[in-house]
Structure formats: C-alpha cells, structure tokens
Description:
The protein has 226 residues and is mostly helical. Helix content is 68%, strand content 4%.
Amino acid sequence: MENQTLDAVLGYIVKRNLRDGDALPPERELAEALGISRRELRGALASLEASGRVWRGVGRGTYLGSRPLKFATSMRSLRTGSSPADIAEMRLMIEPALVELATRKASPEDLAELEKCAKRNAIANDDLEWQQWDHRFHLLIAQATRNAAIIALMEAVNGMRAKPNLREKTADQETRRHFAQQHLVVVDAMIERDGETAAARMRDHLLHVQWRMPAHRGETPNKRDA
C-alpha cells in the first residue's frame, strides 16, 4: 500500500510536469486529489524527503528538489570534494552520539515508527528502495532528538548521500539484509532506553559501512563511486 501511495505521488508530479523548486499542493488538497488519507500521504512525502527528492518547511509547504541551503556555496564545495568514504567517516564521528541523544528524547511513537522503518528496510527488493528506507531511518533518529540543528544536519547528509556519484552502493541482497538487521539492533536498544548500547551498535553499523568503501579496502575507486 505504501509503495502504491508513493507511486501515486510520483505520478501526480509527472502528470503535471512539476520540476525542482515547484511546490506541491497543501497536504489536504493533495490527499483529496489522490484519493488517499493524509497519513498515507505524509508517509510517502517522508520517504521522498529522506531520499532528497522533496523538502518540507514548517509553514512553507512541500517543494520538489533538495532543501535550499543558506550557505549554498560552502555546501556545493563540500559535495564537490566529498567521496562516499568521506561521508562514511563523517557519519561515524557524529551519528553514535546523535542516536544516544535520540534514545533519551524519543517518544513511543518515534520508536514505533523507527521499528517499522527498519523492518521495511529489511525487506526492500532493490538498492533504490533500500536506500529510501535507509535514509528515512537515519533521518527519523535525527528527528527524535527534537533538535532543529541536528535534523538540518542529517537532512544535509542525506542530501549528499542521495547524489548519484556519492551513494554507497548496496547492490547485493545479503548486504542489504545485514545492514537492515543492524538497524533493528539499534532500535531494540533504543526501545530499552539504553543509549550507550544504541550508540555502540550504531558505531558498529557505520564501521561496516565505512569498511565497504573502496578507500578502506585498498581498492581503486571507480569514478562513478568516488
């Protein structure tokens, strides 16, 4: 059902020839036009936001494309000079601490949504679907901190990871399932309100992500993957 909702939103965008920077209608109007509930619509928009295809601002609405950045020149330079290995190294530095804070501040609803997201991630059929749920998982953790600066940072990280030349490839199903299982272990620790263990499990996960990068395995990076 969620995939059908996502397809409906994407179909709406294509049918109306909307492009990056264009605004989508208000949620109520769009949900009525698509014949779906606002809750279903929000789930689809959250998936699109996590994968960098739309951005939403409080009181601003929903827009196609990446979120405009106040320091756009600096971010462009960061994206230009960054490789998947660079991003993995950065994430290893910040996300374990982030998940420890989220464990303390997450609501029961946050934890339930995280668990649901991790389970959907585990049954993804291909790399694109897996990446969408993976990005949403890490963004949900940031949102659970209730810290606007952290949320903005993770949105920027997801935006970089969504770029074709910066994506960490998860081409085989075994790797996807392994990483998704690591997500579930993080959520289990968060549900137990064990921030120290959640942080340790996130660190383990990101070390595995980092290990997959060519630079850490002594391989010559493919130009498409660098």
